[in-house]
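ENTRY TYPE: protein
WANTED: fold as tokens:
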Amino acid sequence: MNPEITITVEDESDTSPSRSYTVHFFDTHIFVTVTKTPSVVRKWIATTVYLRNRRRLFGQLVIGVAVQWNPYRGNDPPAHTLQLCVGCRCLIFQLSHATTVPLILRRFLLDETNTFVGIWNGSDQKKLEMEHGLDIHRLLDLRRYVETDEGDSLLTASVEAIVSECLGFEGVYLDQAISMSRWDAHHLSWEQVLQATVKAYVAFEIGKNQGAWRY
């Protein structure tokens, strides 16, 4: 990962229902909440809904979405984390350790006025439905819509190439070792939190800049 992308720990208390971090993405500071606690998810969603008028673009709210699972665990492993990013706020919900999925999250994901975007996310919706019964209204894979300045498709491009072309940032790639790590861990590593955040954040930024609500 580019050395200008770093993470700072804000709160990792074992007594807290969530852990807090700041991911420094070049000149942008992303405030990250990692939790398995439904009440924390409810508060995050409620705050997002409250702030949505500031983020709405022609009546649409763009949300960066990413999902992580353990690739080596069985033939079709379920999702262990769900990442949502709106603006400079990111939620990492540890689905595999949650006692329940809040109704407000289910409604948020099905809200037809929201536009959900990701990159290389062909399996994400299936993973969420498998064990957690989560459905997302119209989850877009941005690879199908973005192009180079010359008009060439980026359908087969890497995340690094797409971010470079669409956002102008170099060296933003997904480390394979981190992608293959234990996403069902009770305490995600700093590297996992960093990569999970970046994956959702760049999707949000590209979706917002590209006007994904029009697709």
